[in-house]
Write a structure and sequence with these properties.
Number of strands: 10
Number of domains: 3
Oligomer: single chain
Distance between the termini: 18 Å
CATH superfamily of the largest domain: Butyryl-CoA Dehydrogenase, subunit A, domain 3
Order of helices and strands: HHHHHEEEEEEEEHEEHHHH
Radius of gyration: 21 Å
Strand content: 15-25%
Helix content: 40-55%
Bound molecules: acetoacetyl-coenzyme A
């Protein structure tokens, strides 16, 4: 693994950094305060190719790889974590269709995602009673005339109301447990598919999180993604990749918090000198910088392995649990450095803290990551060497 970025990776990272500074940062506080969905920004990201960084060129992507994708997510998250989650989930949908879809599905949906026509993709796995225990989902798909009839309810679906295509998991053979789950591609406005409550969230305000209902929703056979009964594995494979995205998002939020804490500590004076001169605060900055660097290296390793088509399940979970928890500690410490000013909306630090919190929850809680890490460790003796 090379720690030096390629010229292409640097150019893509810098493009994302400039976009984030120019288009996202100036409106991030307003987006948060008024819960404004970043439609214009997502279309602009599609225009400059950043909705398809790890998508093959033949489907409109940049084909620049997972490391470049991860760098983009980190840069965007430094400015606006809410926009970033829409990008990351859309990317996860594009990737899962690229990996398991038919040629028609790839042309139609992945092409539509990268050029902005679909605006976003969404990933409808979770249900009101099936979050961490994803295999216990209850949505059903029964054979109909030339297709499948979906019934069920989904919850916590990022961009579920804005997506041109939603990947939906449903049981096609309830007696077979995880092996009886199949994946379907459902288009916006399909009869029987309705969007429910828009969640009023603590953070990531501006990103949309909704419930979805499927009532006798008919989809043709061509809507099946992958093989019948393979849906659960497909979800796990997609989430392995998605976790690199969430880790990168956490890293971006943590780095933004660190930059804010550093500059505040240099400006703010108490006892006649900048508070940065006090060792107690210096140690907070030092620990935060060290932890975020460690998170960045874990992310880079997971991204490198995935990019090189090597197993990365364990590494993605390590990156996700470490980066999301490091981001949380970063925001908490930097808020502490701000004192009372950190607790009010005049400074962005309280938004960073609220935005960071969910990275320990979605795409698998910290506890799920530890389950995955422990299982992989127990399976792979080489991990102990
Ligand atoms: N890759 C490939 N296959 C995998 C896999 C992986 N990473 N993980 C599991 N599988 C396979 C297993 O090999 C097994 O296959 P066989 O039946 O052939 O043996 C099958 O899947 C079932 O695996 P498990 O027995 O391990 O399944 P489990 O029920 O014990 O679940 C779990 C394990 C890790 C807890 C899993 O349920 C999980 O990851 N839960 C969290 C779900 C999650 O992350 N949800 C996030 C929702 S999406 C979201 O947040 C997006 C958004 O909008 C922001």
């Amino acid at each position: 693994m090379d720690l030096d970025l390629t010229t292409e990776q640097e150019i893509i990272r810098d493009t994302a950094r400039q976009f984030a500074k120019r288009e996202l940062a100036p409106v991030a506080a307003q987006r948060d305060a008024q819960d404004i969905f970043p439609k214009k920004e997502l279309l602009a990201l599609a225009d400059i190719g950043l909705l398809g960084v790890n998508v093959p060129e033949e489907y409109g992507g940049m084909e620049a790889g997972v490391v470049a994708y991860s760098l983009v997510i980190t840069e965007l998250a430094k400015a606006c974590a809410a926009t970033t989650v829409a990008v990351a989930v859309t990317n996860m949908v594009a990737e899962v269709i690229c990996q398991f879809g038919t040629e028609d599905q790839k042309q139609r949906y992945v092409g539509g995602i990268t050029d902005g026509e679909m605006l976003t993709g969404s990933f409808a796995l979770s249900e009101p009673q099936a979050g961490t225990d994803a295999a216990s989902l209850r949505s059903r798909a029964e054979p109909g005339d030339g297709g499948w009839v979906l019934n069920g309810a989904k919850q916590w679906i990022t961009s579920g109301d804005t997506s041109g295509v939603t990947v939906v998991w449903a049981k096609t053979d309830p007696a077979s447990g995880p092996r009886g789950i199949t994946c379907f591609l459902v288009e916006k406005d399909t009869p029987g598919f309705t969007v429910g409550r828009h969640e009023d969230k603590m953070g990531l305000r501006g990103s949309s999180t909704v419930s979805l209902t499927f009532e006798d929703c008919f989809v043709p056979d061509s809507a099946v993604l992958g093989d019948l009964g393979d849906g659960f594995k497909l979800a796990m494979v997609a989430l392995d990749g998605g976790r690199i995205g969430v880790a990168s998002q956490g890293l971006g939020i943590g780095l933004a918090a660190l930059a804010e804490g550093r500059s505040y500590s240099l400006e703010r004076k108490q006892f006649g000198k900048p508070i940065a001169t006090f060792q107690g605060l210096q140690w907070m900055l030092a620990d935060t910088a060290t932890e975020l660097d460690a998170a960045g290296l874990l992310i880079l390793r997971a991204a490198f392995l995935k990019e090189n088509k090597r197993p990365f399940t364990l590494e993605a979970s390590m990156a996700k649990v470490y980066a999301s928890e490091a981001a949380w500690r970063a925001c908490d410490r930097m808020l502490q450095i701000h004192g009372g000013y950190g607790y009010v909306k005049e400074y962005p630090i309280e938004r960073y803290l609220r935005d960071a919190r969910v990275t320990r929850i979605y795409e698998g809680t910290s506890e799920v990551q530890r389950i995955v890490i422990a299982r992989e460790l127990l399976k792979r003796q080489d991990r102990l060497m």
